[in-house]
Amino acid sequence: MEYIERPILKDVIKRKYLDSFDIHFLLECIDDGAGSDMQKNRQKNWKLRDKAIIVLLAMTVMRETALLEINIEDIDFDNKTIKVIDKRHKTHIYKMNETIYNASIDWIDDRKKKLSDKEIDALFISNRKQRLGTKSLVAIVEKYSLEGLGYKISTHKLRAAFCTILYKQTKDIEFVRRAVGNSFIETTQRYVVDDDNAKDEAAFIMEKIFEDFKN
User: Fold this and answer.
1) What does pTM read for this prediction?
2) Pick from 70, 192, 206: nearest CA to 137
3) Interatomic CA distance for residues 186 and 194, integer angstroms
4) Roughly what angle, to the nearest 10 degrees, separates helices 155-170 and 134-149?
5) Residue 169: pLDDT band by 50, 70, 90 thresholds?
């Protein structure tokens, strides 16, 4: 046995990477609804919330845990920034491009009506008027991706899509690494922030990509 070499296992799985068209279809699906007519009618009440969620995940590459922890006070509309607490309790400041800004404003206005006199810090709430949980967030992403793309995706897949789209636009893996906040390029390469300038520039690159669909 000592003369037999260990076989080299190669990753032969063909992975599907989302592109800007996929994200566009996903956002369109939120407007149209998913599932039966009854389900679509229920979704109308939460369309602005769901759209804000998908826009934030697709255009800022924040993790789902960070998104769920955002409070209203973390949003600075004057400077168009969102403060999030990410992995290892590290604070990140994300710049809001116009798409993020408008989606956030629309949802917050709708959120006020839904909460009425109830006080709650969470930006994203459930239909029970509590902070949205991980299971509900996963269900939202899976529901619209199944309807719009024909298969379910995870929130992590949106993070990977951000990296792929940004790299195709810039051809600069180091820039993508800084924008995403990975410590090592090798980690970023698996998808294809510690630099606020990269985050800002990335936000507006993503904005330009999605603006193209409106024209």
Assistant:
1) 0.73
2) 70
3) 16
4) 60
5) confident
